[in-house]
Amino acid sequence: MKHKKIIELLNEMTIEEKIGQMIQITGDIFLSDDTKSMLTGPLKDLHLSKEKIYHVGSVLNIVGAERVKKVQDTYLSNSRLKIPLLFMDDIINGYKIAFPIPIAQGCSWNTQAIKEMTEISSMESSIAGANVNFSPMVDLSRDARWGRVMESIGGEDPLLGEIYAKTMVKAYQGKKLSEIGKIASCVKHIAGYGAVEAGRDYNTVDMSEREFRQYYLPAYKSAIEAGAEMIMTSFNILNGIPSTVNKWLIQEVIRKELGFKGIIISDYNAIEETIAHGYSENEREAARNAINAGVDIDMMSSIYANHLKDLCLENQEIENKVNKSVLRILTLKNKLGLFENPYGNANEIKEKTYVMNATNLEKAKKLTQETFVLLKNNNHVLPLQKNRKIALIGPYIDNIGITGSWSMFSDRTKNDTILDMFKEKIGIQVLYAKGCEILRQEEINKILSADGLPMVHVENESQKEKEMIISAIQVAKKADVILLALGEHYRQSGEACSRSNIALPENQIELINELYKLSKPMILILFNGRPIELSSIEKKLDAILEVWFPGTTGAKAITEMLLGEENPSGKLTMSFPQNVGQCPVYYNHYNTGRPHHNNLRYVSRYQDIPTESFYPFGYGLSYCNFKYTELYLNKHIMNGNETITVTVKIENQSDYAGYEVVQLYIQDLYGSVVRPVKELKAFKKEYFRPHEIKYIHFDIDMHMLKFWNNKLEFIAENGEFKLFVGGDSEKVLEEKFELTY
Ligand code: BGC
């Protein structure tokens, strides 16, 4: 449709119809045949009348071509102007094929892999009728207590966030949104949501503008520059003002400075929550604050529905704002081609042939393997030798629930289990015992009750627990090696899953302790959505393979990795803490005036634990052994806009082929504001044949040396820099250079 026509359409709309476009509700309402029931449940809570329902502009989390078409048909047949609905969804780590959770995807350090996963998700969900995806989530995350770190694609690093944000937005949107397989990307949650105090979800965020610009803003900025069509605001306050009604953030930074032209949507009920925050005095005030800040769509609250009209009647300026918002919404609908074809790409036939197809499942398995991080491998206990007797123990051995908390649409029927895979691969009778449940019922009940679900009582739970451990010991005794599959419950990480204890559940630790007494090599496959506190159990384990929540093809990917058909290459994007008391712990911290280099008393340290993280950012082993030597700079002085070429020699001292992520860090030694001890500036994921030697090059330029100073200027300062190259952020070779210009 031509732009002129859109304007004509806008002019034809009543104020109610305009405001309707700015409201998002759940789509189930349109699937009900019973009109009476439509006004109960969520709709009643939203205080929306039946009439207003047929004005709404978008719905949430309705997918499946048939369902989407049905909703669209019902809606359009009851709507005067027949403006199609937008279907927005949370396809966080895939649609029917669940890919590894975002934190895991980030650990691949492979933008091509992330691009391919995103393209498959995008294609699957687009033919299932999705128009917009609430992804990527790029909130910088330093605190493992926060349950949503599992959704953060870049983890604790701004550069990774920046690179991945751009990759994902482009992969979702392609060159033209109306093309098959493309959906609009909604980057979230702006802003600073990852910095919630004490890692408690929805909590306060307070930070200097300089800190915000330096670490938190770059990933959002990158998504906007890559053309993201939408932005979702965050639940938190940012320096005293809820992000959702933060004029400075939305008007000055997002719209003016970053030039964002797309749609801004609130998070779920976030406009109404500005009242609980103690910012808006009442609902009408909340509506005024949100429209004045520039929120185009109210997700799942009744604020715009019930108050925006009065505000428009009272003030022409507000009506002008409404017109602008509606124009943005209509423009996106037009870009998606919905005026020509309201079903978008929804197509039941393609859905049947494309979704979960064998080629994509095979691809998914390969991509999944890139996300695993080998944390420990003493005496090369991995890969497993097939002739050794292996005892498979743990609640994740025979479990298809390995897709993570945001995979509500995934098709679990195709998920294999590690048990199935071992039976298939090893072809002999496999030794297996469950050993324990993932969580004790009491813990599960806490989760269920918060969800309003009935609690479950287990008779004689502790007796049953003992019996399970005894059978596990009996099985383990028959084996040469114990392979444990343990981890978090999938509802222990994700939204509203903050935890003050980030160790493995107690019953699982007990199982480890009992099996350890057998003095057999023990390998842990770890399923989780956040960095886990491992210090109390790590010494008892010979190897640890971090697999996160690996998704549909996870079991197969894990089995092949353990058997040495594939080689781990993932690297951590979040530091693992020594214990929860160390949170937040991150590699790019400041030095302090009293850094902890020795055992002195009055230095910045803990009395009871080391200052360093347990596993650092960038860390991850391989079956290969990579040796870094001969770090060389072609010059040691950078004049202005010149580049310095850095070269490092890397030797694969092993009989395995594999990938290594070569990482380059820089420290600005003295600045007008203090600079972190290290910052990731570049990386390359390189393939090595057995015993291959490679010289890897990086170019460094002045842009990499820039930072936000106290006057909020993004500049590089003359002076000395340290440069580090290595396979993680701690084990590095060092050099120095100087910037003069
Ligand atoms: C979450 C968002 C999500 C939205 C819609 C909210 O609770 O914070 O990340 O996209 O719900 O489901």
Topology (SSEs and partners):
Blueprint: H1 3-12, H2 15-21, E1 23-26, H3 35-38, H4 41-46, H5 50-53, E2 58-60, H6 65-77, E3 86-89, H7 102-106, H8 111-127, E4 132-133, H9 158-173, E5 184-190, H10 209-225, E6 230-233, E7 237-238, E8 241-242, H11 247-257, E9 263-265, H12 273-276, H13 283-293, E10 298-299, H14 303-314, H15 316-335, H16 348-354, H17 358-369, E11 373-377, E12 390-393, H18 418-426, E13 431-433, H19 441-450, H20 461-477, E14 481-487, H21 506-516, E15 522-527, E16 543-546, H22 554-562, E17 626-633, E18 637-639, E19 644-652, E20 658-668, E21 679-688, E22 693-700, E23 707-708, E24 714-715, E25 719-726, E26 732-740
* Strands, total number: 26
Q: Give the overall form.
A: globular
Major sheet: size, sense and barrel closure? Answer: 8 strands, parallel
Strand order of the largest sheet: 9-6-5-4-3-2-1-10
Query: What is the CATH homologous superfamily assignment of the largest domain?
Result: Glycoside hydrolase, family 3, N-terminal domain
* Poorly predicted tracts of residues: none
Heteromolecules bound: beta-D-glucopyranose
Cα(first) to Cα(last) distance is: 52 Å
